[in-house]
Design brief:
The complex is a heterodimer of chains A (about 675) and B (about 325). Chain A is mainly alpha-helical. Chain A has helices spanning about 5-25, 30-60, 85-110, 120-135, 140-155, 165-190, 200-205, 210-225, 235-240, 245-270, 275-300, 305-330, 335-370, 380-385, 385-400, 405-415, 425-455, 465-470, 475-495, 495-510, 535-560, 585-600, 625-645, 655-675; strands at about 65-70, 80-85, 565, 605, 620. Classes of the chains: A mainly alpha (about 675), B mainly alpha (about 325).
Chain lengths: ~675, ~325
């Protein structure tokens, strides 16, 4: 069987598993069976993807694309499926992530009160994402995309009795509909007047740059709204946290990547060429998304909502890489395009790993404390030692700090930016240094944000009774999170292996590859040429560990070893109240003042009690969401206004209805006559 | 190779050895400028030894992270400092991390330091951490854009290559380098908690940043942190010196005598840097915390402008 047969079989088996689980979802062992089978199936599918890529890397970068045609779907197209290098990579991302999350859910899913609201949708959702990735015609692609959207919507509504969850679901549904509409228009343009809806004919028929640009913009709207680019991100922070944590991880860590797959597939594969200014738009959107995402995240105190905003940030970083790849490709700088492309793909993989780990960690915290509000946590490092260590790994990784994987992909993106002065285009020359600065700003703010998350949730003193009595989660959860943490470390220490595995993908998309990294001694990576820039994760890790242990050894050999436990010093204050420590809102205050005054119209107000009164003073912060208040609230206001006005039509007499019909008829006839 | 390894080892030892001395020189110079006698030059060494002999008083709810962080911070700073070509560019391991990675290593050190500030759960630790991260959020992009300027000029992000290029004769005076220098100096002041951003000699005031963060540390842990801060100062000063006064740096193929001479040159340059810093610090007042973003924003804009100029033309 070829790769496409295997992946398709896996996807269909997952969907069948979802359907059949209706029968036994309410049984006690139901969730274990479903999650374990989903985990095994997705792991197998990921292995198929990996085998395809590795075989391609061995065979001169050419992945033999396996295709399949089934006589279902639209009669004159049928259903086309194809696994090439790009699809294989995303099959790995989807399969690996889903399998880890599924095994995690064996433990986590036991806490679900109504498992039948999750189990039928969960494996089918994985299957639908796989189908999107291997679809090879517009109809199958859009159908799978819609199935994926609807299943994830159903999963978001698991706890539908909470009204906040229902309204999140509504916003998600509207944004998903908008996104699909853009995709339909994009594929309509690609198919041309003859309606060639299979991807093979779309590739063959070259588009004019103008049509290409419109398609890219439509894809940016359609795939971008699913991935969460600013300002179309508004549904992410509502819907991702509303779902159970393993579903949040799926949506944030994996489904956003499937959306990016759609963008890459159309922009780099189906489209022949685009106008030069498209890459500038993508770059600008990426940079704004990265910085806005992390600034939004800093203002949050709901743990999962904060993580969802961080997904927005990382999507921005990925789009910066993609924008650079588009620019380099347009000016035939293929080696540079390969570097930017690999940086983006590497970040896609990295983000799917550490964001899954973060959401699974947040799920563990939620299980232990029953809350997502960071202001109710604190001191969990004492109560949940393993979870806290694993969450720390993910926090360091997402903050782009060595020696973990997030650093390597951002480092590659920086290296790609440093190649951009060679671009002949002045707009790009002016834009890229700014984009580089924004990327650095986003990375630094992300570090600040994760000091806040980790410091408030896991460090300090417990802020509530539940945090004081929290207990470590089950072994399934800990084991799966450990695997993800290990991947974060390994991908950061041996990035060369991953870069080489990604080479067939960049070869397929930009007709060039990065230099072979495994040829370098000592596992060093040199993205362009040795002497220009290199990074060696192994040595950095080794040196830091060695120096740390050396320092500790010297200190413990020669310095005093005595240690005494005492109350905290805190400049002599002795306040037992845990609310005296810094919380999520207070930690963000300096950054809120620096950046938020303009962007979020952040206002702080202090209400002092009258002199002599013992009432406490009140401090409150007001924030305005510029995107929601500035755009979406107005749109929704306009729609409501229009609906109100149109509502009058409902209460007319029969005479008035007839005259309205008559007037409409006359108007249409007039238009028809004038049209000629 | 053996020789390069020796140079690397000597450099690693040298930066640690002179770190407390540098702090001593700055303290002495500041005191003399204020017409005070000042502590002896070797006082920082004595302080470190004294701290190492004392017992550690640990807060009841301090976690393992709190105890591990001093070593982690020291190790990351030390590795970063070891990769700066202070007196020789022929460092054995200079290719293992480029300038971006060095900035990121310092970022790792800062990340863990800020976490340690949050660990005990006191208001001072929190205020220090949150302000440190706010300052870093502006200083790090400025630093990164400065790195961009240098990398674009030298065509490399490897620090040895950059230093080698800047030491060459065909650089000359450039506008972009001037902007990068000013930006780098501001970033160095902010990152090392010097006046006007933070005052390293105050204690127990609400305006302090770094000292508030490490308030709960004592004994050998504090000694590690003090040494790491001194090392970071050496690192930034060496970075500025090796990039902008690359005069007298020994190349990979030079003789032993040339290397020893280069060490002497390096020490003289560091002394000059310390004097400049002390003079600057006594002649300027500390800023209010929420004025710091203006200063760092200026650094950010300068470094961006410098990079932009290089994108426009390599000769600027």
């Amino acid at each position: 069987m070829s790769a496409v047969d295997l992946v398709l079989t896996g996807a269909l088996l997952l969907m069948a598993l979802g359907l059949s689980s209706i029968l036994f979802a309410a049984r006690p062992m139901g969730s274990t069976i479903v999650y374990a089978s989903a985990g095994v199936l997705s792991a197998l599918v990921a292995l198929v993807g990996l085998a395809t890529l590795v075989a391609g890397a061995g065979a001169g970068m050419n992945v033999g694309a396996s295709t399949l045609w089934l006589p279902i779907g639209l009669p004159w197209i049928g259903a086309h499926f194809r696994v090439d290098a790009l699809a294989a990579f995303f099959v790995i991302v989807v399969g690996f992530g889903s399998s880890i999350i599924s095994f995690y859910s064996i433990g986590y899913g036991r806490h679900e009160h109504e498992p039948w609201r999750v189990l039928p949708f969960y494996p089918s959702f994985i299957g639908a994402m796989l189908l999107v990735v291997i679809a090879d015609d517009a109809f199958s692609f859009l159908l799978s995309w819609e199935v994926m959207s609807l299943l994830s919507w159903a999963l978001v509504l698991t706890h539908h009795r909470e009204s906040a969850v229902r309204s999140s679901g509504l916003v998600y549904l509207i944004m998903a509909a908008f996104g699909t509409m853009s995709l339909i228009l994009a594929f309509g343009l690609l198919a041309g007047p003859l309606g060639a809806y299979d991807f093979q004919s779309m590739r063959a028929s070259g588009q004019t740059p103008l049509v290409g640009s419109v398609v890219v913009i439509l894809m940016l709207l359609g795939a971008g709204s699913k991935a969460g680019i600013v300002p179309l991100h508004i549904w992410l922070p509502l819907a991702h946290p509303a779902a159970p944590s393993h579903v949040s991880a799926m949506m944030s860590g994996i489904m956003t990547k499937v959306a990016i797959y759609g963008f890459i597939r159309v922009t780099f594969d189906l489209l022949g060429g685009t106008s030069w200014w498209m890459s500038e738009i993508v770059l600008a959107v990426g940079a704004v998304t990265a910085v806005m995402g992390v600034l939004y995240a800093l203002m949050q105190h709901d743990l999962k909502r904060l993580l969802a905003y961080h997904t927005v940030e990382n999507i921005g970083i990925i789009f910066i890489g993609l924008g650079l790849a588009m620019a380099f490709r347009h000016y035939d700088m293929n080696a540079a395009a390969a570097l930017a492309m690999v940086a983006a793909l590497f970040h896609i993989f990295n983000h799917s790993v550490f964001k899954n780990l973060l959401f699974l960690g947040a799920g563990a915290v939620q299980t232990a404390t029953g809350s997502r509000d960071m202001e109710k946590m604190g001191g969990l490092i004492h109560r949940m030692p393993v979870t806290s260590l694993l969450f720390l790994v993910a926090s360091v990784a997402i903050s782009a700090l060595p020696p973990f994987n997030g650093f390597v992909s951002e480092w590659l993106t920086f290296q790609a930016i440093l190649l951009s002065p060679d671009l002949p285009d002045w707009g790009l020359k002016i834009l890229t240094p700014g984009v580089g600065g924004m990327l650095a700003l986003a990375a630094a703010l992300a570090a600040a944000c994760f000091v806040k998350v980790y410091g408030v949730v896991f460090l300090g003193r417990a802020r509530s009774e539940v945090a004081k009595t929290a207990r470590e989660v089950d072994r399934w959860s800990l084991a799966t999170m450990s695997v993800l943490a290990l991947v974060c470390l390994l991908a950061g220490v041996f990035p060369g292996v991953i870069i080489d595995t990604l080479s067939p993908v960049s070869h397929a998309l930009v007709q060039a590859t990065m230099p072979v990294q495994s040829a370098d001694p000592w596992m060093t990576i040199t993205p362009v040429a040795s002497g220009r820039s290199s990074y060696n994760g192994v040595l950095v890790l080794l040196f830091v560990t060695m120096s740390g242990f050396f320092a500790a050894w010297v200190i413990h050999r020669f310095a005093s070893r005595s240690l005494r436990r005492a109350p905290a010093w805190d400049c002599g204050f002795e306040l037992d109240d845990p609310s005296t420590q810094y919380g999520a809102a207070s930690f963000a205050q300096p950054i809120r003042r620096t950046f938020g005054t303009k962007i979020f119209s952040a206002r702080e107000s202090v209400t002092m009690p009258p002199p002599g009164s013992t009432a406490p003073a009140k401090f409150s912060v007001s924030l305005r969401d510029p995107v929601w208040d500035g755009f979406f609230a107005r749109v929704s206001g306009a729609v409501t206004w229009l609906a109100d006005k149109a509502n009058r039509l409902q209460f007319l007499t029969i005479r008035q209805y007839l005259s309205v019909v008559f007037a409409a008829l006359v108007l249409l006839l007039l238009v028809l006559t004038l049209w000629k | 190779m053996i020789f390069n390894l020796l140079v690397q080892g000597l450099q690693m030892m040298l930066v640690v050895a002179i770190a407390p001395l540098l702090v001593g020189v700055i303290h002495k110079m500041r005191a003399r400028l204020l017409r005070k006698q000042g502590a002896p030059l070797l006082q920082p060494y004595r302080d470190l030894l004294r701290l190492m002999k004392k017992e550690v008083v640990l807060a009841h709810n301090a976690s393992w992270l709190f105890r591990a962080v001093p070593y982690m911070v020291f190790a990351a700073t030390w590795v970063a400092a070891a990769l700066i070509p202070t007196f020789a560019t022929g460092l054995q391991f200079s290719w293992s991390a480029d300038l971006i990675a060095i900035v990121a290593l310092l970022g790792s050190a800062r990340f863990f330091m800020a976490l340690a500030g949050m660990d005990v759960g006191t208001s001072f630790g929190g205020i220090g951490s949150s302000r440190e991260m706010m300052i870093a959020a502006l200083a790090e992009p400025a630093m990164m854009l400065t790195v961009f300027s240098l990398a674009l000029l030298a065509g490399s992000t490897q620090l040895s290559t950059v230093t080698h290029y800047l030491a060459g004769s065909n650089v000359g005076l450039r506008v972009s380098l001037g902007m990068a220098l000013v930006a780098l100096v501001i970033v160095a002041l902010a990152e090392n908690a010097r006046i006007p951003v933070d005052n390293p000699s105050t204690h127990l005031e609400l305006t302090m940043v770094h000292e508030a963060m490490v308030l709960e540390y004592s004994g050998r842990h504090l000694a590690m942190i003090e040494l790491a801060s001194a090392l970071k100062l050496v690192l930034y000063l060496s970075l500025i010196v090796s990039l902008f006064i690359p005069f007298g740096v020994a190349g990979p193929g030079d003789t032993i005598a040339a290397h020893l001479l280069a060490v002497v040159y390096y020490l003289i340059k560091m002394l000059g840097g310390a004097l400049a810093l002390a003079t600057f610090e006594v002649s300027i007042a500390k800023m209010r915390v929420f004025r710091i973003p203006d200063l760092l924003g200026a650094a950010l804009m300068l470094s961006l402008l410098g990079t932009l100029l290089l994108f426009v033309s390599r000769s600027l």
